[in-house]
Design a protein that fits this description.
single chain; 166 residues; six-stranded antiparallel beta barrel
Length: 166
């Protein structure tokens, strides 16, 4: 089985765990509560705004995100669990993450955290090898962000190929 993986370079924190461990599940469910704003972003993507309306919408959404961040900081809700391992996700696709170095143990489950476009994301994976992990559990709103990021990486790669071939 050959996988098409796309260069990513994401810093990740992770730890071996049981997928049903409440210690990790609690953070998994609570991390990125501000992503509830993503439903508004999704709805907005289906609406044809004029330039000025789009600008105002983006500004209001940005202000709301800042307010949520401040609330979380004031209430100490953005404290994250200490995870035992760190590594670089060198490449990825829609289902797999590939680490730059051999950090995983085959057939073990891992709880992982990383950031995409300034938004924290948490997920559970199953190690396929010492470098490769398959995503087995991810929240729907995080899936949307992750898939959009993966598509953007693919588009960027295609643009670079076209520019190099011209």
């Amino acid at each position: 089985m050959e996988l098409n993986l796309f260069k990513a370079g994401l810093n990740a924190e992770f730890q071996s765990c049981d997928v049903n461990d409440s210690y990790f599940l609690q953070e998994y469910l609570n991390i990125n509560l501000s992503s509830k704003l993503s439903k508004w972003k999704k709805l907005a993507s289906k609406v044809d705004f004029e330039d000025s309306e789009k600008l105002i919408f983006d500004l209001i959404l940005s202000l709301k995100e800042d307010i949520v961040k401040l609330e979380n900081r004031l209430l100490n809700q953005d404290k994250l669990l200490p995870l035992s391992q760190k590594g670089i996700i060198d490449a990825l696709n829609f289902e797999y993450l590939n680490f730059l170095e051999p950090l995983l143990q085959k057939d073990k489950h891992y709880y992982m955290r990383f950031e995409i476009n300034g938004q924290k994301m948490a997920l559970f994976t199953l190690a396929q090898s010492e470098n490769l992990a398959k995503i087995i559990k991810i929240k729907a709103e995080d899936r949307i962000l992750y898939d959009a990021f993966t598509v953007e990486i693919q588009r960027d790669m295609i643009r670079n190929r076209k520019e190099n071939n011209e």
